Amino acid sequence: MRYFESEVIANRQITEDIFVLQVERCGAEAAAGQYYMLKSWDTELTLMRPISIFKAEPDALHFMYRTVGKGTAKMAELKPGDKLKLLGPAGNGYPCDQISGKVAVVGGGVGIPPLCETSKTLQAKGLSVDAYLGFRDVLFAVEDFEPWCSDIFVSTEKGEEGYRGFVTDLLKPENYDVVITCGPEVMMRKVAAMCAETGTTCYCSLEHRMACGIGACLGCSIRTKNGMKRVCKDGPVFLSTDLLW
Questions:
Q1: In the predicted structure, residue 235 carries a pLDDT above the cut 90
Q2: Cis omega before residue 95 (within 30°)?
Q3: Where are the domains of the chain?
Q4: Residue 209: what pLDDT?
Q5: How far apart are alpha carbons 51 and 66 in whole angstroms?
Q6: What is the longest distance spanned by two Cα atoms in the chain?
Q7: Which of 5, 82, 217, 234 has the highest local Cβ count within 10 Å?
Q8: Which CATH fold would you assign to the domain 2-90?
Q9: What pLDDT, on the 0 to 100 scale, is given for residue 114?
């Protein structure tokens, strides 16, 4: 992990409240499921914001984020050439080197972005990957999964596109050796329970408020079978059977 300054290449708005920020990579490392702490302000706000890696290219990192507060609203104002500070890569990502067989990635909302780089990494290993992507209404990023996934299943709560209902309605864990999930906790709990019934290995990437990103403040601590763990440093990826929901 290192602290450095980067430059904005592009900051595209793709839905009413979702943006894709592309910044110069500056030699930064990046693994599937990891994240960076980002900051584009000096005085108005104090804390950096944790944003997962959407895509990693040789010369650029892509971060997809939703504007939900003052920090992300400031990020939405960034323009090409603007400077921003990064700390990372942070956290433990998905153990792609240990995964084999057929894989399903299951994402909901802004839990979808980190699964794109994950799918790319697994496909590069020669694994077959299917994506299950759940949205409230408007679709985004589906096309980014197409190069890396054999099949893509889409659901929306209103059913205007794809299956009408929850993405977990489409998932059949017994068809997979490993299931990887990121999104709302209620969705991940359902995925974990379904995998437990079929004995399918399941990894969950938890979303949690993170103040420091380095494990110092303990504000993101959760209960696991192995005691209290910090989502920012010990996670965000955990084996589902280790979690005490």
A1: no
A2: no
A3: 2-90, 96-205
A4: 60
A5: 10
A6: 51
A7: 234
A8: Elongation Factor Tu (Ef-tu); domain 3 (2.40.30)
A9: 96
